From TrEMBL:
The keyword Ribosomal protein does not apply. This is Sialate O-acetylesterase. The lineage of its organism: Bacteria, Pseudomonadati, Bacteroidota, Flavobacteriia, Flavobacteriales. Residues 26-295 form the Sialate O-acetylesterase domain. Residues 1-18 form the signal peptide. Coiled coil: none annotated. It comes from Flavobacterium polysaccharolyticum.
Length: 310
């Protein structure tokens, strides 16, 4: 055998290994309205959450009102503070804000559970958005069957499809396999402040939307954690959300009756920076509580043997 052929023969196994090596990365979707978008102040973050996250990445879709061609544009980036309200993306570059949401403490807690494993976040949340399309033209709705204009559900699909299509999210030259591991949903306030009828429909609307979000990730049993809405009471009648109890009932019913679902109730103890939004420490705690719940569900989920479960 000629030396050149022998060298190729000896190197071939290593070449094949290099070609087939892939990174398996857990991916979680974060969606909802303003308390998922995030109104915490970056300047109030503890030092441990101020730096770029090691082995954590985020694709955040540009949050806009309905019927805006720029909705859902995004770009994979290393996770760091600035993905709260005021964040924007044109699909080529991201503009960070001075705010943050649950993503920082959520990932920090996950990395404690899964050390040295990569984590990916796909986020699309829109301030003020409701599921029901009735009377919510400015902030937008998530109603899947609303077809008069592009809405929040369309931007969610655009965000997820573009994020999942990227084969190397961190640019290290190794193909990434993104494995959906959970959905976090913090929303409902804008379905609780309009009419009793809209609030009464929240359970049905939430169930339908979550079914379709699961379907977008091609897993009809994908773990879901719901954040329960709360009320600051900062209103003359003592209730900001006039029909909040009805939406809370819908959330509790969903968590009780649907498989592979948890609800986080710690929101009831959070302090507020204004009548609608938690103080910075609330978002930090909520991220941790979301992580605890999704970790528990992931331990019960045996659909992904390719992922190491600690």
């Amino acid at each position: 055998m000629k030396l050149k052929n022998l060298t190729f023969f000896l190197l071939m196994p290593f070449m094949l290994f290099a070609q087939t090596k892939k990174d398996t990365i857990r991916v979680y979707y974060l969606g909802g309205q303003s308390n998922m978008e995030g109104f915490g102040y970056v300047k109030e973050l503890p030092e441990a959450l101020r730096k770029k996250s090691k082995n954590a990445f985020i694709y955040q879709g540009n949050p806009v009102g309905d019927n805006d061609a720029n909705g859902g544009l995004g770009k994979w980036a290393v996770l760091q503070p600035g993905h709260g309200t005021g964040f924007a993306s044109d699909g080529k570059s991201n503009t960070l804000s001075d705010r943050f949401g649950v993503e920082l403490s959520f990932v920090q807690k996950l990395q404690e559970e899964y050390p040295n494993q990569k984590i990916a976040i796909i986020k699309y949340a829109r301030n003020g958005s409701a599921i029901d399309s009735s009377g919510n033209n400015f902030f937008g709705s998530w109603e899947p069957d609303f077809r008069r204009v592009k809405n929040q559900y369309d931007y969610f699909l655009k965000t997820v499809q573009a994020a999942m299509a990227v084969k190397d999210i961190n640019g290290d030259g190794i193909e990434d396999v993104l494995v959906p591991c959970g959905i976090l949903w913090m929303q409902g306030e804008s379905d609780a402040d309009k009419t009793e009828q809209i609030a009464n429909h929240y359970y049905d609307n939430l169930k339908r939307l979550m079914q379709l979000i699961r379907a977008a990730f091609r897993n009809n049993d994908l773990p879901i954690v719901i954040g329960k809405i709360s009320d600051s009471g900062d209103d003359p009648d003592g209730k900001v959300w006039g029909f909040g109890e009805l939406v809370q009932y819908g959330q509790e019913k969903f968590a009780l009756t649907e498989p592979n679902v948890r609800i986080v109730r710690s929101t009831s103890k959070y302090l507020y920076s204004d009548k609608y939004h938690y103080k910075s420490e609330g978002y930090i705690d909520l991220g941790k509580e979301f992580a605890k719940a999704i970790i528990d569900l992931n331990k019960k989920d045996n659909n992904h043997p390719e992922i190491q479960h600690n």
